[in-house]
Write the structure tokens for this entry.
Amino acid sequence: MTWKCSVVDIPLGGGKGGVTVDPKKLSIDEKQRLARGYMRCVASELGVMKDVPAPDVYTDPQIMAWMMDEYEVIMRVSHPGVITGKPIPLGGSQGRGDATARGGIYCVREAAKKIGMKTQGATMAIQGFGNAGQFAASLGSEILGLKLIAASDSQGGVINEKGIDPKALMEYKKKNDKVGGFPGTRAISNEELLELKVDVLFPSALENQITAKNAKNIKARISCELANGPTTPDADEILHKNGVLVLPDFLANAGGVTVSYFEQVQNTYNYYWTLEEVQKQLDAKMTKAFNDVYDMSQKEKVHMRMAAYMVAVKRVADCCKLRGWV
Amino acid sequence: MGPTHMVTIDTDLLSEICKGLSDGMMLLLSTRTGGIEMVEELNPFKIAQKQLEMAAAKLGLDKATTELLKWPMKEYVYTLPLKMDDGSTKILHAYRVQYNNARGHG
């Protein structure tokens, strides 16, 4: 999170939290008790000028709402900005829901300009048709005119070279809890999906999907990492050599934390932006971040992940120095 | 636990092998083959630390700054009892990490 906040240049230090538990095995009441119990543990370390949690894996707006409420019960004061990712009626931001994917799509748009790729009608494949992956499919189609030809989830994938309607696939996934069997498609494995000849690949599932073993088979022109850590360092070198432009995770999926930051800004102002304003501000942040990283990669002749690290680490290191820590 | 074996390794040879490793690789002493296997490092934190070190070297950062950025500045660990619907209690572990607050709060 430290590198992610730094690369999009939002004034946050970066933190993370969690509980070792399988939330799929908890009832709704148990989840509420857990969210409140977690807040009782961490409340004294949090604060709008101290540390502000944002949603991550399995923490939906309802869970964020319970945590915010518990904090206010403990502190006996209104403090909506202590938690982000809240439901909109409780001080959540417009545009938080699709922010991660939208930020990634803005990066793809900028990357396409650099490599001279026309996005209208270009193809995309999505590994991991979950929250971020689904929004990437629909926004990729809406904003950039990308054509979805394959998508997968943990149970396998589907393909149709003529194109798949993202919205219809989202409906199907909601009803059946999987993409497999979607009418008009053939089955494809997760491994095969990664190696498809597409213009844009969205690794949006798990870590370590593109490794030294399969990196040489990746044929995408752009790999936009909506998941955290889908590519290993050895695979990075191979992709770089083969001319695959990787949009590294902490750049490509930084849209989520960026809109969380906007949410906190709005809570502090106690004045709320329109959806258009949120999207405009997000676009500006992502476009600047992409170009900072791309310019660094050109200047230093390094791949995009190394460039992203260099941009982010330099900003943090400069602040450490200015503070007199080192 | 199965039987354990003492494996003697020539340290010069080992350092030669290590030099030849790429940045993302690590050595694994294999009890299965009784020898050394090369596997890709897949621990995300270790990968991130390694990538940070490489970026820091490219940027020409001093040793202290690199070391500072390699570790979280604050870590909190909690033991959290959770009452279940069936009346039982689960003991869970909870965490909060504030990695670095040089540019602002967490």
About this structure: Chain A has a mean pLDDT of 97. The longest helix of chain A spans residues 275-300. Chain A touches chain B through 60 residues (CB under 8 Å).
